Amino acid sequence: MWFLFGIITILSFAIGVIIRNLQANWKGNHDRVDENQFSYKIVKNKYGIIGVMIGVEAPKSFNFRLKEEKWYDSIFTNIGLSVETQVGEDNFDKMVYIVSDDSVFLDFLKNSEHTRQSLLKLFNVIAYPVKRIKEVRCSNKKLWIYYKTHGDLEDKDIKSLAKIAVPILDSIKNDLNDIRSNQTTPVKRDPFIFKASALLAVSSGLFVSGVIHFYRLNWENTPFLVYFSDPLPLTLAISSSILLFLLILTVVLLGRSSRTHLVFIELILIGGIGLAANSYSVLRDVNMEYDTSNEITFPKRVISKHISRSKNSTSYYIKVVDWLDQTKTKSITIDQSMYNDLYSGSQIEISQKEGYLGYKWITNIDKI
To answer: What is the pTM of this model?
Structure first.
């Protein structure tokens, strides 16, 4: 059942991510600076404000992303895994990484010194409250800049950033309007948009499914594996093999495009974690679901019990002599109601099975 749930989760989330990536956009508050209209959205996480996006309307026939060039971009382009178009201007080529394979946009950028200088102005604005420029993005009829910022943002901070960014964004938008092409869509001009979105969607789907399984396994007290580490070798082998397949598929689908190494990095860091969590969960579930071995019971006496509290949860433990190694003790997680019924010296019965894959597991713990 959980295996089917995982497949459905991966597919559903992947489809959602593909749609979100292809129709990248956002809704925010509307305002104006001087005579220029703009929209903005404050970006938050659970710790507070992390940034702000400021954008203007743009032609629908463009989809590109520009970001600050990092050391890893240089490494992957130098080894030939990814290819970034160089515009022929040293300052721009060193500072900005172009995530686009749209020949119309790339030719325009090479030939438009005005646009390049406008973009450099945006990337050079690093003053409080700005920590760094995450990206300049054009998609779905909007052109925007995403500032990573320090702490809280006040209205005056947003106004101050908008006074700098909005006129420049409007200038770039006007340049794009002069050369826009209505004959084809960005996805047709840049075939790697959809392919990269699909691969990133699989990566995100694997991660979300893995997180769900992780919390599921930690939420359940029984059943559980006697030795948590038993499935790890096979987990590593399976997840590594699938990850290698996805990386090879990335090279086949994207070739030496501007996005190849960015997809590589996310597959390894995000998809790899999801693959490991999913593989472990599937092995655990198969080991239990298909186990036809006889149940063995071990009567044990509770040595002690204790509670462990964290910010978001409370766990209840009892300590008993390890039923597989009498020279050791073992702590077992139980639910609160059983914890309240037990005390030091209480008798319990631990039921164990051998496991379909040979991973011993506990089916139940009962008070005698």
So the answer is: 0.84
The residue whose two tokens read 């190849």 is 260
What is the tally of structural domains in the chain? 3
- Record the tokens describing residue 326, joined without a space: 């009498």
The two structure tokens encoding residue 232: 């790890």
d(CA 122, CA 157): 16
Sheet containing strand 130-139, strands side by side: 29-33, 36-45, 48-57, 142-149, 130-139, 64-68, 96-99
**Rounded (10°) angle between helices 2-22 and 272-289:** 160
Taking a C-beta distance cutoff of 8 angstroms, is the pair 137, 64 a contact? yes
Eight-state DSSP code of residue 127: -
Q: What is the mean pLDDT of each run of 10 residues along the chain (368 residues)?
A: 55 55 71 90 89 91 91 93 92 94 90 94 86 92 92 86 94 85 62 84 86 82 91 97 96 92 94 93 93 94 90 87 90 90 92 96 92
Long-range contacts (CB closer than 8 Å, 24 or more residues apart) made by 93-98: 94/69, 95/68, 95/69, 95/120, 95/123, 96/66, 96/67, 96/68, 96/69, 96/120, 96/123, 97/66, 97/67, 97/68, 97/69, 97/70, 97/73, 97/258, 98/64, 98/66, 98/258
User: Domain boundary at 184, 211, 244, which?
Assistant: 184
Q: How far apart are CA 323 and CA 174, in angstroms?
A: 75
With 0-12 / 13-18 / 19 or more C-beta atoms within 10 angstroms meaning exposed / middle / buried, residue 323 is middle
Name the E strands within 124-234.
130-139, 142-149, 224-225
Q: Which two tokens stand for residue 204?
A: 């995100």
DSSP annotation of 293: P
One domain, residues 199 and 180? no
Q: Is residue 8 part of a domain?
A: no
Domain of residue 336: give its range.
296-367
pLDDT at 221: 82
Helix (H, G, I), strand (E, B) or coil at 220: coil
CA-nearest of 267, 209, 269 to 242 is 267
Question: Which of 184, 201, 230 is where one domain is finished?
Answer: 184
Q: Is residue 172 located within the same domain as residue 241?
A: no
If asked whether residues 180 and 196 sit together in one domain, one would say no
